[in-house]
Protein backbone atom coordinates (compact mmCIF):
# COMPACT_ATOMS: atom_id res chain seq x y z
CA UNK A 1 0.00 0.00 0.00
CA UNK A 2 1.26 3.46 -0.88
CA UNK A 3 1.59 6.67 1.07
CA UNK A 4 -1.01 9.38 1.49
CA UNK A 5 -0.17 13.01 0.79
CA UNK A 6 -1.79 16.40 1.14
CA UNK A 7 -1.77 18.57 -1.96
CA UNK A 8 -2.20 22.31 -2.29
CA UNK A 9 -3.18 22.56 -5.96
CA UNK A 10 -2.64 26.28 -6.27
CA UNK A 11 -3.47 28.85 -8.91
CA UNK A 12 0.17 29.82 -9.38
CA UNK A 13 2.14 27.26 -7.34
CA UNK A 14 1.40 23.80 -5.95
CA UNK A 15 2.92 21.84 -3.09
CA UNK A 16 2.81 18.34 -1.61
CA UNK A 17 3.15 17.46 2.07
CA UNK A 18 3.09 14.39 4.28
CA UNK A 19 2.34 13.95 7.93
CA UNK A 20 5.64 13.39 9.74
CA UNK A 21 6.21 11.16 12.75
CA UNK A 22 5.66 14.08 15.14
CA UNK A 23 2.23 14.77 13.63
CA UNK A 24 3.30 17.86 11.72
CA UNK A 25 3.28 18.54 8.01
CA UNK A 26 6.49 18.16 6.03
CA UNK A 27 6.61 19.64 2.55
CA UNK A 28 8.20 17.34 -0.01
CA UNK A 29 10.65 18.86 -2.49
CA UNK A 30 9.99 18.44 -6.19
CA UNK A 31 12.53 16.90 -8.58
CA UNK A 32 14.25 20.29 -8.84
CA UNK A 33 14.69 20.52 -5.06
CA UNK A 34 12.07 23.24 -4.64
CA UNK A 35 9.20 23.15 -2.11
CA UNK A 36 6.70 24.46 -4.63
CA UNK A 37 6.04 23.68 -8.27
CA UNK A 38 4.65 26.33 -10.62
CA UNK A 39 1.13 25.31 -11.68
CA UNK A 40 2.07 25.82 -15.32
CA UNK A 41 1.94 23.35 -18.23
CA UNK A 42 3.78 23.63 -21.55
CA UNK A 43 2.51 21.59 -24.48
CA UNK A 44 4.98 20.85 -27.26
CA UNK A 45 3.90 22.24 -30.61
CA UNK A 46 4.93 19.06 -32.43
CA UNK A 47 2.46 16.22 -32.88
CA UNK A 48 1.09 16.22 -29.34
CA UNK A 49 2.74 12.89 -28.52
CA UNK A 50 5.41 14.45 -26.31
CA UNK A 51 4.72 14.56 -22.58
CA UNK A 52 3.67 18.01 -21.40
CA UNK A 53 6.24 19.87 -19.31
CA UNK A 54 5.12 21.02 -15.86
CA UNK A 55 6.67 23.50 -13.46
CA UNK A 56 9.61 25.86 -13.71
CA UNK A 57 10.60 24.89 -17.26
CA UNK A 58 7.00 25.37 -18.42
CA UNK A 59 6.93 28.78 -16.72
CA UNK A 60 10.08 29.81 -18.61
CA UNK A 61 8.53 28.63 -21.89
CA UNK A 62 5.63 31.06 -21.42
CA UNK A 63 7.77 33.94 -22.71
CA UNK A 64 8.88 32.05 -25.84
CA UNK A 65 5.71 30.11 -26.65
CA UNK A 66 2.75 31.71 -24.86
CA UNK A 67 0.22 29.88 -27.04
CA UNK A 68 1.59 26.53 -25.83
CA UNK A 69 1.45 27.32 -22.11
CA UNK A 70 -1.44 27.05 -19.66
CA UNK A 71 -1.34 29.05 -16.43
CA UNK A 72 -3.97 29.79 -13.78
CA UNK A 73 -6.06 26.76 -14.81
CA UNK A 74 -7.51 26.51 -11.30
CA UNK A 75 -9.68 29.52 -12.15
CA UNK A 76 -11.43 27.40 -14.79
CA UNK A 77 -12.09 24.27 -12.74
CA UNK A 78 -15.67 23.09 -13.14
CA UNK A 79 -16.32 25.26 -16.20
CA UNK A 80 -17.62 22.89 -18.90
CA UNK A 81 -17.07 25.52 -21.61
CA UNK A 82 -13.38 26.18 -20.95
CA UNK A 83 -10.83 24.38 -23.11
CA UNK A 84 -7.17 24.88 -23.92
CA UNK A 85 -6.47 24.23 -27.59
CA UNK A 86 -2.79 23.53 -28.12
CA UNK A 87 -1.00 24.43 -31.33
CA UNK A 88 -0.60 20.69 -31.99
CA UNK A 89 -4.38 20.42 -32.33
CA UNK A 90 -5.07 18.78 -28.97
CA UNK A 91 -7.82 20.16 -26.77
CA UNK A 92 -7.79 19.92 -22.97
CA UNK A 93 -10.34 20.61 -20.24
CA UNK A 94 -9.34 22.32 -17.01
CA UNK A 95 -9.58 18.94 -15.28
CA UNK A 96 -7.20 17.38 -17.79
CA UNK A 97 -4.64 20.18 -17.40
CA UNK A 98 -4.92 19.98 -13.61
CA UNK A 99 -4.48 16.20 -13.82
CA UNK A 100 -1.20 16.75 -15.68
CA UNK A 101 0.00 19.01 -12.85
CA UNK A 102 -1.16 16.51 -10.22
CA UNK A 103 0.56 13.65 -12.04
CA UNK A 104 3.84 15.58 -11.89
CA UNK A 105 3.31 16.25 -8.18
CA UNK A 106 2.64 12.54 -7.66
CA UNK A 107 5.83 11.55 -9.50
CA UNK A 108 7.89 14.06 -7.53
CA UNK A 109 6.42 12.87 -4.22
CA UNK A 110 7.19 9.26 -5.10
CA UNK A 111 10.75 10.25 -5.98
CA UNK A 112 11.17 12.13 -2.69
CA UNK A 113 9.69 9.32 -0.60
CA UNK A 114 11.10 6.37 -2.51
CA UNK A 115 7.74 4.63 -2.43
CA UNK A 116 4.39 4.74 -4.24
CA UNK A 117 1.93 7.50 -3.41
CA UNK A 118 -1.65 6.36 -3.85
CA UNK A 119 -3.92 8.48 -1.67
CA UNK A 120 -4.35 12.23 -1.56
CA UNK A 121 -6.25 14.98 0.16
CA UNK A 122 -6.47 17.97 -2.18
CA UNK A 123 -7.22 21.46 -0.93
CA UNK A 124 -9.50 23.96 -2.66
CA UNK A 125 -10.57 27.52 -1.87
CA UNK A 126 -13.52 27.76 0.53
CA UNK A 127 -15.56 29.50 -2.19
CA UNK A 128 -15.35 26.51 -4.59
CA UNK A 129 -18.85 25.21 -5.33
CA UNK A 130 -19.76 21.55 -5.87
CA UNK A 131 -18.89 21.63 -9.59
CA UNK A 132 -15.38 22.94 -8.89
CA UNK A 133 -14.83 20.52 -6.01
CA UNK A 134 -16.00 17.60 -8.17
CA UNK A 135 -13.75 18.73 -11.03
CA UNK A 136 -10.77 18.87 -8.65
CA UNK A 137 -11.52 15.37 -7.38
CA UNK A 138 -11.84 14.11 -10.96
CA UNK A 139 -8.47 15.65 -11.85
CA UNK A 140 -6.93 13.82 -8.91
CA UNK A 141 -8.39 10.52 -10.08
CA UNK A 142 -7.15 11.16 -13.62
CA UNK A 143 -3.65 11.67 -12.16
CA UNK A 144 -3.78 8.26 -10.49
CA UNK A 145 -4.76 9.23 -6.97
CA UNK A 146 -7.38 7.77 -4.71
CA UNK A 147 -8.75 11.15 -3.61
CA UNK A 148 -9.65 10.64 0.01
CA UNK A 149 -11.07 14.11 0.44
CA UNK A 150 -11.31 17.56 -1.09
CA UNK A 151 -10.69 19.95 1.79
CA UNK A 152 -11.18 23.70 2.11
CA UNK A 153 -7.84 25.54 2.29
CA UNK A 154 -8.74 27.42 5.51
CA UNK A 155 -9.69 24.12 7.15
CA UNK A 156 -6.40 22.55 6.10
CA UNK A 157 -4.52 25.54 7.51
CA UNK A 158 -6.38 25.27 10.80
CA UNK A 159 -5.59 21.57 11.21
CA UNK A 160 -1.92 21.97 10.37
Task: Walk me through the structure.
The protein has 4 helices and 11 strands, in the order ββββββαβββαβαβα. The relative contact order is 0.19. Helix 2 crosses helix 3. The protein has 160 residues and is an alpha+beta fold. Strands 1, 2, 3, 4, 10 and 11 form a 6-stranded mixed β-sheet that branches. The protein has one domain: ATPase, nucleotide binding domain (Nucleotidyltransferase, domain 5), CATH 3.30.420.40. 31% of the residues lie in helices and 29% in strands.
Which characteristics define this entry?
alpha+beta; Nucleotidyltransferase, domain 5; 160 residues; six-stranded mixed sheet; globular; three-stranded antiparallel sheet
Distance between the termini: 24 Å
CATH topology name, in short, is Nucleotidyltransferase, domain 5
Structural class: alpha+beta
CATH class: Alpha Beta
Strand content: 25-35%
Question: What would you call the shape?
Answer: globular
Q: Oligomeric status of the shown chains?
A: single chain
Query: Which CATH architecture?
Result: 2-Layer Sandwich
Radius of gyration: 15 Å
The total beta strand count reads 11
CATH superfamily: ATPase, nucleotide binding domain
Helix content: 25-40%
Number of domains: 1
Low-confidence stretches: none
Order of helices and strands: EEEEEEHEEEHEHEH
| Main sheet properties | 6 strands, mixed
Query: Count the helices. How many?
Result: 4
Mean pLDDT: 93
Topology:
Elements: E1 3-8, E2 13-19, E3 25-28, E4 37-38, E5 40-42, E6 53-54, H1 56-64, E7 69-71, E8 84-85, E9 91-92, H2 94-113, E10 117-124, H3 130-142, E11 146-152, H4 153-159
Parallel strand pairs: 1-10, 10-11
Antiparallel strand pairs: 1-2, 2-3, 2-4, 5-6, 5-7, 8-9
Helix pairs in contact: 2-3
InterPro entries: ATPase_NBD (IPR043129), Heat_shock_70_CS (IPR018181), Hsp_70_fam (IPR013126)
Keywords: ATP-binding, Chaperone, Nucleotide-binding, Phosphoprotein, Stress response
Family: Belongs to the heat shock protein 70 family.
